[in-house]
Specification:
single chain, 415 residues, alpha+beta, Cytochrome-c3 Hydrogenase, chain B, four-stranded antiparallel β-sheet, three-stranded antiparallel β-sheet
Length: 415
């Protein structure tokens, strides 16, 4: 017997799950990423490096800037290009805008209906309209930052190897500094709201993240030793999914806000760090449901950090100069923290600067195995205790805790 979770609601993309029942017990769960493969790795083979980040930005509308930045970093490392702190800070600012936009969308419009018992945010707005407005305002502010750095709200083309097509003005940075401080009270309120959610899903035993907060040279896990992904992560294809599945030392692991807070909490801004300590006991249990609370704390971090970056750049002044890029044969990996977790762009280039090899690994692909074990745990606890409708609803809440971006995850698959 199979219980099917049809296309998940209130997540990005098209996925579902099958709960396998044998002899009256839950035996297995299969997370089926059924959105068609999009072959972005193949699309870039033979393309000139300069065009590649713009192509990769089409992978996702919600987290396009993370793809652009990871792509640019991978290309720059293949060529041995180093950029100044000004460019690094501006890229970080763009990633922060994307974090705000994505987390606000997820928490206020996709998860909050579960908190208040509504099927969607539209019906929730009838009694909690102010909360919905706050979420939309935070999302809009994140989009304005992302548009400033990426060139437009969706599929921007401003992030380039060696720099940017356009640099922000003094007036634009002053507005970011001013508005970041004004929005902080909304983010703190969100932390209080999502701290009310209880534990569900599986306890994660392993967490992975980049070694810096929103980007990195390498990855880290609980031992804090840095490594390249191929040294510890095994990718494999599944017959029932168009997304690859990854294992760490043969076991499922978690990437995302919860992983970032637990592995890199010392890098947080002051108020976000205080909130982490206030909720550390709960977060440290590792239940995937607390990823929602971790995202709320990251809203506070993002607003504080956006103000810090804007002030730093204003104090120094922006030169607006790109670094020369000379193509050559090489290999480079871009590690970025997309809102949902670690994103990897790995390239090899030929002497003309064309892409000879490409591999892209997204947060949802990295979390695939962890989603399955979380669904399995919840299904075993719920089956026979609640009716099928309630069971499906609660399993969907488990999926939503991961904030999956399914369209990002479907790339080249080999069987």
């Amino acid at each position: 017997m199979i219980i099917e979770l049809r296309e998940f609601t209130r997540v990005e993309g098209n996925g579902k799950a099958e709960i396998v029942i044998e002899d009256g017990e839950v035996k297995d769960v299969r997370l089926k990423i059924i959105e068609g493969p999009r072959f972005f790795e193949l699309l870039t083979i033979g393309r000139h490096y300069y065009d590649v980040p713009d192509i990769e930005a089409r992978i996702c509308a919600i987290c396009y800037l993370a793809h652009s930045v990871a792509s640019v970093m991978g290309i720059e490392r293949a060529f041995g290009v180093e950029v100044p702190e000004e460019i690094t800070l501006l890229r970080e600012l763009g990633l922060i805008g994307e974090l705000l936009e994505s987390h606000a969308l997820h928490l206020y419009l996709l998860v909050a209906p579960d908190v208040f018992g509504y099927p969607d945010a539209i019906r929730m707005a009838s009694k909690h309209g102010e909360l919905v407005k706050e979420g939309i305002a935070l999302k809009a502010f994140g989009n304005r930052i992302r548009e400033l750095i990426g060139g437009r709200e969706i599929h921007g083309i401003n992030v380039k190897p060696g720099g940017f097509g356009r640099y922000p003005t003094t007036e634009e940075l002053e507005a970011i500094e001013r508005e970041s401080a004004a929005f902080l009270r909304l983010a703190k309120r969100a932390v209080r709201l999502f701290a009310s959610l209880g534990p569900y899903g599986e306890k994660a035993e392993h967490f992975l993240a980049t070694d810096n907060y929103l980007w990195g040279e390498k990855l880290i896990a609980e031992d804090k030793e840095s490594f390249h992904y191929a040294e510890r992560i095994e990718e494999r294809s599944l017959v029932y999914s168009f997304a690859k599945q990854s294992l760490y030392g043969g076991e499922p692991f978690f990437v995302g806000s919860l992983a970032r807070l637990l592995l890199k909490g010392e890098q947080l801004t002051p108020e976000a760090k205080r909130l982490l300590e206030e909720h550390r006991e709960k977060l440290s249990t590792g239940y995937v449901s607390y990823n929602n609370l971790a995202q709320a704390i990251e809203l506070v971090y993002a607003l504080e950090r956006a103000g810090e970056i804007a002030k730093t750049l204003l104090d120094r002044g922006i030169s607006g100069e790109n670094v020369p890029v000379e193509p050559k044969e090489g290999e480079g990996i871009g590690y970025v923290e997309a809102p949902r977790g670690v994103l990897i762009h790995h390239y090899r280039t030929d002497s003309d600067g064309k892409i000879a090899y490409s591999n892209i690994i997204t947060p949802t692909a990295l979390n695939h195995a962890m989603i399955e074990v979380s669904l399995l745990k919840e299904a075993r606890a719920l089956y026979g205790e609640v009716d099928e409708g309630e069971m499906v609803q609660r399993l969907e809440e488990t999926v939503r805790a991961f904030d999956p971006c399914i369209s990002c995850s479907v790339h080249l698959v080999k069987f």
